[in-house]
Amino acid sequence: MAIYFDSIVFGPVRSRRLGSSLGINLLPLKGKICSFDCVYCECGWNSEGHSDNKIPTVEEVREALESKLSECHRDNIPVDSITFSGNGEPTLHPDFPEIIDYTILLRDELFPKAVISVLSNATMLGRPGVKEALRKIENPILKLDGVDKDYVKLIDRPQNPNYSISEVISNLEWFEGDFILQTMFLRGVVNDVEVDSMRSDLLERWQRMVIALRPREVMLYTLDRKTPLSTLEKVSVEEMELAAAPLKEAGIKIRISG
Ligand code: SF4
Question: What topology does CATH give the domain 9-257?
């Protein structure tokens, strides 16, 4: 059973990474829309839900955000991060760049010390204005789970048949290291195929890619909640520490969530 964020603005919630985080969901309230359909997605499969396909308008997002930020400001509720995540991929919203622009204005007015974070799967970086919008905020947190196309196809299930990892990598290069890379580590069975992020050839290619991209931080994480596919397992923090060791040696900041 999928669990959805049932409002445009939610929280603030306590986040280990981001502190007091006010969430923004630019997708439907009762279903997920995503350019991936990851086997580990906490919102379930793309095909579930969908009693509601409506995405909020720019005006609706602005009103919801302004009202919640004003309320937090009035009641002295801290907001450390305004965080775009929600029921799917936030950069799929057609007005994403405009929404980022006024989020910056509202943040500057009401919570100037808060950062703006976007959790994105990096598939839409080629769409006009998306990269530029992400460059304006403090925390573009961009996912790339691997470099091997068969592995990524199995665990992230890109919805676009023309999805290209090399295109994503060249879009990430455009950030010149000023982004946070996020990678999921797991193992299990997907479509009768054994997958394991710790397989040495997959891991080595991923490490080489990260060292070449030199993101300002790398977030490694593993399964935390129930996943739509039940044949998956967590990897241990110790394994992720080993995976990250060459990156640390190369001077890249690492954050691991087990
Ligand atoms: S990219 Fe994120 S929202 Fe989309 S399917 Fe994967 S985990 Fe879910």
Answer: TIM Barrel (3.20.20)
pTM for the whole structure: 0.96
Q: Is 43 in the pocket of ligand 1 (CB under 6 A)?
A: yes
b/e per residue 129-147 (b: at least 16 CB within 10 A): ebbebbeebebbbbbbbbb
Q: Is the CB of 247 under 6 A from ligand 1?
A: no
Tell me: the pLDDT tens digits for 102-154?
Answer: 999 999 999 999 999 999 999 999 999 999 999 999 999 999 999 999 999 99
* 48 pLDDT above the threshold of 90: no
Distance CA 207, CA 225 (A): 26
Does ligand 1 have an atom closer than 6 angstroms to the CB of 97? Answer: no
CA distance readout (Å), 52 to 4, 16, 74, 87, 132? 11, 31, 33, 12, 30
| Ligand 1 touching residue 39 (CB < 6 A) | no
Residue 62 near residue 26, CB atoms below 8 Å: no
Q: Note the helical H segments in the chain.
A: 58-74, 96-110, 130-136, 149-156, 165-173, 200-213, 237-249
d(CA 58, CA 102): 10
CA of 12 to the centre of ligand 1 (A): 21
Mutation probe of ligand 1 site: the residue of 92, 155, 156, 227 with most atoms within 8 A of C-beta: 156
